[in-house]
Amino acid sequence: MWTHKAWQGRLLAHPLASHERLRHYAGWCDAVEGNTTFYATPTRDTVASWAQQTDPDFRFVLKLPKLITHERRLVDADGALRVFLDAIEPLGPRAHALWIQLPGSFGPADVAVLASFLRRLPSSHRYAVEVRHPAFFDEPRSAALLEEALAVTGAEWIPFDTTEFFRSPPTSEAEREAWTRKPRVPFRSRALTDRPIVRYLGRDDPARTIEGWQRWIDVAVEWLREGRSPTIFVHTPDNADAPVLARRLHDDVRARVPELEALPDPMPAGPLTLF
C-alpha cells in the first residue's frame, strides 16, 4: 500500500503520476506490504515499474493471490502460482518474502496440505506464513506442528499483533470497522528464521499505538543483536499516519542499536504535526 488517500498532499506529493507514487513512498519507508496482489496478479510491466521506482534493497512482502490461499486452499493451484511467480520476477532481490496468508478456517488438520505446498515452492524465494486459526496460538501441539512444517522449507511465521487494538473498545469509525474484521489472536514474538516479519495494528490515537509497540522494541533489539534482519509493518485502523509512525518505531529501535541503518530522507509534501 503506497497510494493511501490520506497521505496525498500531506505526506506524499499530490498529484503524482502512477509511476512515481511508490518512489515517493520509498522515501518514507524501505518496505511495503503487497496487499493488492491478494486480489489480482499484477502484470509484469506493472511489477517492472515497481522495481524501477525502488532501490535493490527495498523490501516487498507480497501476498499470494486469494485464488491460491483462500479459494483453492493451496490445492490444485500450481498454474496460478506459476503465473504469479512469473509476474513478480522483475522485482529480483526486492521480493523479500512471499506472504502466504491463510483463512481463519485453515487449522491444524490442514498443516499437511501446507507442508506439501511449501515443499513444491521454488527455492528462489523466501516464504512467510500468516495463520489465524486459534488452535495455533492456544494449543502448543498445534503450534509445534506448524513450526515443524515451516522449518522444513525455512519459512517464517508472521505474527499479526492486534492485542493493543483490542485492549479497549473502538472510538472512531475506522476503529469500529476494523473491530469486526481484524483477527483476535494472542501475542507471539518467536522468530523461526533470520528474517522475521511482524504486522502490528495500533489505534488511531498515535500515543496508544506507540504505547502498544514498546515490547516490540525489545524484541527487535534482541533480534538485531542476534544477527537477524526483521521487517515490522505498522498499521492503524485509518492508516493516516502509518508512515510517520513506522519511522518513529525505527528511530526508537535505532536509539538502542545505533549501528542500524537510518531510513531514507522523505520528500515531504507539507508540514508534519504528529510529534
TrEMBL record:
Coiled coil: none annotated. SUPFAM superfamilies: TM1631-like. This is DUF72 domain-containing protein. It comes from Micromonospora rubida.
